[in-house]
Amino acid sequence: MKITLNGEEREFGSELTIGELLTELGLQSNRVVIELNREILNLAEALPRQLKSADKLEIIQFVGGG
Q1: Percentages helix, strand, coil for the chain, rounded to the nearest 5?
Q2: How far apart are the first and last CA of the chain?
Q3: What DSSP element (H or E) covers 34?
Q4: Would you say 46 and 36 are in contact if contact means Cβ atoms under 8 Å apart?
Q5: Can you give the pLDDT at residue 40?
Q6: Residue 5 phi, psi dihedral angles, 5° rounding
Q7: Judging by beta carbons within 10 Å of its beta carbon (0-12, 13-18, 19+), is residue 41 exposed, middle or buried?
Q8: Tens digit of pLDDT for each residue in 19-64?
Q9: Which of 56, 53, 50 is CA-nearest to residue 37?
Q10: Per-residue model confidence (pLDDT) at position 66
Q11: CA dihedral over 7, 13, 16, 20, signed as positive or negative
Q12: What span, in angstroms and rounded, lies between the C-alpha atoms of 38 and 53?
C-alpha cells in the first residue's frame, strides 16, 4: 500500500489503520493531529480508520520543551 505521509510517498507491506500506523512510526496518539486527504480528523474517529492506497496523510506532532 502506498500513501503520501507528510509530503513523502511511503510504501507499507499491508493495509493499516491510522492507529496502527502511529504505532509503527513510534508516535503517541495523544500528541498528534491527523489530517487525511485535506481533512483534519477527530482523533477518536481517526485511530480505527483504515488507510487506502493513494491517501494523503499529514501527521503533526506536539513537542514539549522549555
Answers
A1: 25, 35, 40
A2: 39
A3: strand 32-36
A4: yes
A5: 96
A6: -115, 115
A7: middle
A8: 999 999 999 988 899 999 999 999 889 999 999 999 999 999 988 7
A9: 56
A10: 63
A11: negative
A12: 15
Extents of the domains making up the chain = 2-61
CA nearest 62: which of 39, 32, 37?
32
Q: What angle do CA 10, 23, 63 make, to 5 degrees?
A: 90
**Alpha-helical regions (H) of the chain:** 18-25, 43-46
Residue with cell 499491508: 14
Q: Which letter does DSSP use for residue 6 in this model?
A: T
Class of 2-61 in CATH: alpha beta
**Per-residue pLDDT, 14:** 85
Cell numbers placing 66: 522549555
